[in-house]
Amino acid sequence: LCAAYALHCWLFRTADSTGFGSRKLDLVDHKDNPDCIFEKLRFLLRHLPGWMMPDGFQFNRHDKLYTLVNPENGSTITGEGGSEIGRGGRKSRYFVDEAAFLPNPKSVEAALSQTTRVRIDVSTPNGQGNPFHIKRFSGGVPVFTFHWRDDPRKDDAWYEREKERIGDPVIIAQELDIDYTASVEHVCIPAAWVRSAVGFELPVSGLVTAGYHVAEGAGSSVLAMRHGPVVLDVHGWRGMDSLESAEVVLERMQALEAVQVRYDCVGIGVEVRAMLEVAARQRGTDLGFAPMAVNMGEAPTDLRWPDGKTSRERFRNLRSELFWLLRQRFEKTHSVVTGAAVVGTAVEGAGGLAVYSPDELISIPEHGELIAQLSLAVYSYTESGKVVVESARDMKRRGIGSADFVDALALAFYGASFVVPERRALVPQIDRFSLELSKVARSW
Hints:
By secondary structure, the chain is an alpha/beta fold. The protein has helices at residues 2-12, 25-28, 37-46, 59-62, 105-112, 131-136, 156-166, 169-176, 191-197, 242-255, 272-283, 311-314, 318-337, 368-374, 392-397, 404-412, 427-443, and strands spanning 17-22, 63-64, 67-69, 76-81, 93-97, 119-122, 208-213, 221-227, 230-237, 260-264, 290-294, 341-343, 354-356, 379-381, 387-389. It has a 6-stranded mixed beta sheet with strand order 2-3-4-1-5-6. Strands 9-8-7-10-11 form a 5-stranded mixed beta sheet, sandwiched between helices. A two-stranded parallel sheet has the order 12-13. The radius of gyration is 27 Å and the shape is elongated. Mean pLDDT is 85; it is low at 417-436.
């Protein structure tokens, strides 16, 4: 598709210039290799009717290695590979082939920023955290997905044959199902579950609360606000000092009349409450909401799970517990979307299906960074069998960014997620208790 469009521009636009780049130069051009980009261009060119060929064009003169020249209008198509992508001068547009597999993506990003205003990255998934994955879910660029179901020649029978032929479930998930988490084991919140929750219609309940992750280093400060199971707003920012960040939180909290914000009080988070109070005084107003300090590195809660164990027995720290409670929400939402469960109020299943109340589920907005980060963290087990979700430091060791947006989301649901199926009878009491706390907080 990209080669066909480039050739169309080469034929019908004056002084047009298209660039192609890939991780290896041989993937761009290698004579008689039909898999490389320029051989696709030559195939299309050779099969054009004669009247469409440029005046004076000769294959032996105008078709060189990595270069295709139109002698009639001066248009060109050129190719580059490896770490030199983008160093070949200005282009009308630039296609980056297999962009998720570039060995030095940051160097390519810098080079192409001065090469073209129109860049198109093309790739199959290659895990998470790389620039292609981040841009794919950033919400800042248009995305075109070409799934095998879009090919009229392929159907479910073809898919089953391919699965049998390939055999490897990781390759199947990555190459056929476009799953960015295919090669990653023990993902805390799988990408398929996340997509099911995007825009999922749920009724709001209770009062508006928020989670606030305070940035350290190059990370993002994030405020996630929810109304019951519905995430209303997720906002991230960088480059602000503590007071400026507090002003952002104050403005957005008051705009949605939120009653409480939970924040991680470790490190620079220790000054959040003080900065919020300073920001409120500068505005000449009261806070109107209650800041709640949470140490995500401390011991888990005493929540008892269906197997009879408490969170202290199941998880290494509070952060792992909160991430696991988020995982449950996304898993249940996915089961509802896929028809494996229904939304209701009855304790018994309907026709053998699990029944979940709306407050056990989650709905998130179409927010690229949040969606991309939700499936980054993986979990493991300690020697004593406790679940531990990897820390931001461990994620950086894996070469991927931290999950700042997910930390804020987990904090937003802290204190309201303590619902497990076998204890559903306690939900009304918990809800009334939370409501009383919210009333006290608003009054305070």
